[in-house]
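Hi,

Apologies if this is the wrong queue. I'm a grad student, and the batch job for Repressor LexA from candidate division WS6 bacterium 36_33 produced an output file that my downstream script rejects. I'm not sure whether the problem is my script or the file. Here is the sequence I used:
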Amino acid sequence: MGGILTKKQENVLRIIRQCYLENGQAPSLGELQEFLGISTKRGVVNHLIALEKKGYIIRTGDPRGIHIVDNDEEIVYDYLIGVPILGYANAGTPLVNAEEENLGNIKVDPKLVNKKKDLFALIVKGDSMDLAEIEGKNIEEGSYLIVQKDAEIQDGDVVVAIIDNSATVKRFKKGDGMITLYPESTNPLNQPIFLDKDTEVMFNGKVIKVLENPT
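Support response: The file is valid. Your script probably expects a header line. Output copied below for reference.
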Protein backbone atom coordinates (compact mmCIF):
# COMPACT_ATOMS: atom_id res chain seq x y z
CA MET A 1 0.00 0.00 0.00
CA GLY A 2 1.20 3.46 -0.82
CA GLY A 3 0.18 5.74 2.04
CA ILE A 4 -1.51 6.38 5.36
CA LEU A 5 -5.25 6.90 5.18
CA THR A 6 -7.13 9.79 6.72
CA LYS A 7 -10.09 9.02 8.99
CA LYS A 8 -12.52 9.81 6.17
CA GLN A 9 -10.64 7.60 3.72
CA GLU A 10 -10.65 4.77 6.28
CA ASN A 11 -14.41 5.18 6.58
CA VAL A 12 -14.89 5.06 2.80
CA LEU A 13 -12.80 1.88 2.57
CA ARG A 14 -14.71 0.33 5.48
CA ILE A 15 -18.04 1.01 3.75
CA ILE A 16 -16.80 -0.51 0.49
CA ARG A 17 -15.65 -3.65 2.30
CA GLN A 18 -18.95 -3.88 4.19
CA CYS A 19 -20.95 -3.64 0.96
CA TYR A 20 -18.92 -6.49 -0.51
CA LEU A 21 -19.56 -8.62 2.58
CA GLU A 22 -23.29 -7.88 2.72
CA ASN A 23 -24.20 -7.54 -0.97
CA GLY A 24 -21.40 -9.22 -2.88
CA GLN A 25 -20.68 -6.04 -4.83
CA ALA A 26 -19.30 -2.55 -4.44
CA PRO A 27 -21.55 0.41 -3.66
CA SER A 28 -22.49 2.83 -6.40
CA LEU A 29 -21.33 6.42 -6.30
CA GLY A 30 -24.78 7.55 -5.17
CA GLU A 31 -24.90 4.95 -2.42
CA LEU A 32 -21.50 6.02 -1.12
CA GLN A 33 -22.66 9.63 -1.13
CA GLU A 34 -25.67 8.66 0.98
CA PHE A 35 -23.68 6.45 3.37
CA LEU A 36 -21.07 9.15 3.93
CA GLY A 37 -23.49 12.06 4.13
CA ILE A 38 -21.53 14.03 1.53
CA SER A 39 -23.42 16.77 -0.31
CA THR A 40 -21.89 16.18 -3.76
CA LYS A 41 -20.73 13.17 -5.74
CA ARG A 42 -17.53 15.04 -6.49
CA GLY A 43 -16.58 14.79 -2.83
CA VAL A 44 -17.00 11.02 -2.98
CA VAL A 45 -14.94 10.85 -6.17
CA ASN A 46 -12.11 12.77 -4.51
CA HIS A 47 -11.93 10.17 -1.72
CA LEU A 48 -11.89 7.33 -4.24
CA ILE A 49 -9.13 9.00 -6.27
CA ALA A 50 -7.06 9.24 -3.08
CA LEU A 51 -7.68 5.58 -2.20
CA GLU A 52 -6.64 4.47 -5.67
CA LYS A 53 -3.49 6.59 -5.64
CA LYS A 54 -2.55 5.03 -2.30
CA GLY A 55 -3.08 1.55 -3.72
CA TYR A 56 -6.13 0.43 -1.72
CA ILE A 57 -8.60 0.14 -4.59
CA ILE A 58 -8.72 -0.23 -8.36
CA ARG A 59 -11.47 1.58 -10.27
CA THR A 60 -12.92 0.37 -13.56
CA GLY A 61 -15.51 1.68 -16.00
CA ASP A 62 -18.25 -0.58 -14.68
CA PRO A 63 -21.25 0.92 -12.81
CA ARG A 64 -19.98 -0.52 -9.49
CA GLY A 65 -16.38 -0.80 -10.56
CA ILE A 66 -14.55 -0.49 -7.24
CA HIS A 67 -12.22 -3.39 -6.51
CA ILE A 68 -10.33 -3.69 -3.25
CA VAL A 69 -6.64 -4.55 -3.40
CA ASP A 70 -5.63 -6.82 -0.53
CA ASN A 71 -2.08 -7.27 0.72
CA ASP A 72 -2.33 -11.04 0.59
CA GLU A 73 -3.84 -11.37 -2.86
CA GLU A 74 -3.52 -8.33 -5.08
CA ILE A 75 -6.15 -8.08 -7.79
CA VAL A 76 -4.68 -7.71 -11.26
CA TYR A 77 -6.68 -6.60 -14.29
CA ASP A 78 -4.24 -6.98 -17.17
CA TYR A 79 -7.01 -6.73 -19.77
CA LEU A 80 -8.10 -3.25 -18.65
CA ILE A 81 -6.70 -0.10 -20.20
CA GLY A 82 -5.85 2.99 -18.18
CA VAL A 83 -7.44 6.19 -19.45
CA PRO A 84 -5.81 9.33 -17.98
CA ILE A 85 -8.15 11.70 -16.14
CA LEU A 86 -7.03 15.15 -17.29
CA GLY A 87 -9.27 17.28 -15.11
CA TYR A 88 -12.71 18.84 -15.23
CA ALA A 89 -14.85 20.22 -18.04
CA ASN A 90 -17.87 22.44 -17.70
CA ALA A 91 -21.23 21.28 -18.92
CA GLY A 92 -22.30 24.88 -18.47
CA THR A 93 -20.71 28.26 -19.05
CA PRO A 94 -17.04 27.54 -19.84
CA LEU A 95 -15.44 28.73 -16.63
CA VAL A 96 -13.09 25.88 -15.78
CA ASN A 97 -9.51 26.51 -16.84
CA ALA A 98 -8.49 24.04 -19.51
CA GLU A 99 -5.02 23.28 -18.17
CA GLU A 100 -4.52 19.56 -17.75
CA GLU A 101 -4.55 18.10 -14.26
CA ASN A 102 -3.25 14.73 -13.23
CA LEU A 103 -6.11 12.99 -11.46
CA GLY A 104 -4.83 9.48 -12.08
CA ASN A 105 -6.29 6.88 -14.41
CA ILE A 106 -9.64 5.22 -14.75
CA LYS A 107 -9.51 1.56 -15.74
CA VAL A 108 -11.80 0.73 -18.65
CA ASP A 109 -12.58 -2.49 -20.46
CA PRO A 110 -11.36 -2.01 -24.07
CA LYS A 111 -14.67 -3.41 -25.29
CA LEU A 112 -16.49 -0.41 -23.78
CA VAL A 113 -14.62 1.95 -26.09
CA ASN A 114 -14.36 -0.35 -29.12
CA LYS A 115 -10.59 -0.55 -28.61
CA LYS A 116 -10.17 3.08 -29.67
CA LYS A 117 -6.86 4.80 -28.94
CA ASP A 118 -5.85 8.35 -27.96
CA LEU A 119 -8.41 8.53 -25.17
CA PHE A 120 -8.63 10.73 -22.11
CA ALA A 121 -11.24 11.28 -19.41
CA LEU A 122 -12.82 14.39 -17.92
CA ILE A 123 -15.11 14.87 -14.93
CA VAL A 124 -18.24 16.91 -15.63
CA LYS A 125 -19.08 20.10 -13.79
CA GLY A 126 -22.41 21.80 -14.38
CA ASP A 127 -25.85 20.87 -15.69
CA SER A 128 -26.00 22.23 -19.23
CA MET A 129 -25.85 18.72 -20.73
CA ASP A 130 -27.88 16.75 -18.18
CA LEU A 131 -30.46 15.83 -20.84
CA ALA A 132 -27.84 14.77 -23.39
CA GLU A 133 -27.26 11.05 -23.82
CA ILE A 134 -24.38 9.00 -25.12
CA GLU A 135 -25.48 5.40 -25.64
CA GLY A 136 -28.36 5.93 -23.23
CA LYS A 137 -26.36 7.52 -20.39
CA ASN A 138 -26.90 11.13 -19.39
CA ILE A 139 -24.08 13.64 -19.00
CA GLU A 140 -24.64 14.68 -15.41
CA GLU A 141 -22.64 16.44 -12.72
CA GLY A 142 -19.83 14.13 -11.63
CA SER A 143 -20.02 11.90 -14.71
CA TYR A 144 -16.81 10.75 -16.30
CA LEU A 145 -16.54 11.43 -20.02
CA ILE A 146 -14.32 9.26 -22.19
CA VAL A 147 -13.08 11.47 -25.02
CA GLN A 148 -11.39 10.42 -28.24
CA LYS A 149 -8.74 12.98 -29.05
CA ASP A 150 -8.48 14.32 -32.60
CA ALA A 151 -11.58 12.39 -33.69
CA GLU A 152 -13.45 13.54 -36.77
CA ILE A 153 -16.26 15.78 -35.53
CA GLN A 154 -19.63 15.74 -37.26
CA ASP A 155 -22.93 17.54 -36.73
CA GLY A 156 -24.67 16.20 -33.65
CA ASP A 157 -21.53 14.99 -31.89
CA VAL A 158 -20.91 15.93 -28.27
CA VAL A 159 -17.54 17.66 -28.19
CA VAL A 160 -15.00 19.10 -25.79
CA ALA A 161 -14.26 22.66 -26.90
CA ILE A 162 -11.59 24.99 -25.56
CA ILE A 163 -12.76 28.62 -25.66
CA ASP A 164 -10.55 31.32 -24.17
CA ASN A 165 -8.52 28.60 -22.41
CA SER A 166 -11.62 27.11 -20.77
CA ALA A 167 -13.14 23.71 -21.50
CA THR A 168 -16.81 23.15 -22.18
CA VAL A 169 -18.89 20.16 -23.29
CA LYS A 170 -21.68 20.81 -25.79
CA ARG A 171 -23.53 19.45 -28.82
CA PHE A 172 -21.81 20.50 -32.08
CA LYS A 173 -23.68 22.04 -35.01
CA LYS A 174 -22.17 23.74 -38.04
CA GLY A 175 -24.01 25.85 -40.60
CA ASP A 176 -24.37 29.28 -42.22
CA GLY A 177 -20.73 30.14 -41.62
CA MET A 178 -21.06 29.64 -37.87
CA ILE A 179 -20.55 26.88 -35.34
CA THR A 180 -23.08 26.58 -32.54
CA LEU A 181 -22.47 24.65 -29.34
CA TYR A 182 -25.84 23.67 -27.93
CA PRO A 183 -26.71 22.79 -24.34
CA GLU A 184 -29.26 20.07 -23.61
CA SER A 185 -30.38 20.94 -20.14
CA THR A 186 -33.14 21.01 -17.57
CA ASN A 187 -31.81 24.45 -16.61
CA PRO A 188 -33.21 27.24 -18.85
CA LEU A 189 -30.30 29.51 -17.91
CA ASN A 190 -27.98 27.47 -20.13
CA GLN A 191 -27.81 29.03 -23.58
CA PRO A 192 -26.10 28.13 -26.87
CA ILE A 193 -22.59 29.38 -27.58
CA PHE A 194 -22.19 30.92 -31.04
CA LEU A 195 -18.75 30.78 -32.64
CA ASP A 196 -17.93 32.86 -35.69
CA LYS A 197 -14.73 32.88 -37.73
CA ASP A 198 -13.10 35.33 -35.33
CA THR A 199 -13.66 33.19 -32.23
CA GLU A 200 -10.60 31.37 -30.96
CA VAL A 201 -11.70 27.80 -30.36
CA MET A 202 -10.02 24.41 -30.32
CA PHE A 203 -11.83 21.09 -30.30
CA ASN A 204 -10.05 18.61 -28.07
CA GLY A 205 -12.10 15.62 -29.05
CA LYS A 206 -15.43 13.85 -29.25
CA VAL A 207 -17.19 12.27 -26.29
CA ILE A 208 -17.64 8.56 -27.01
CA LYS A 209 -18.67 7.20 -23.62
CA VAL A 210 -20.29 8.40 -20.40
CA LEU A 211 -19.55 6.55 -17.18
CA GLU A 212 -22.24 7.53 -14.71
CA ASN A 213 -20.73 5.69 -11.75
CA PRO A 214 -17.22 4.75 -12.88
CA THR A 215 -16.09 4.37 -9.31
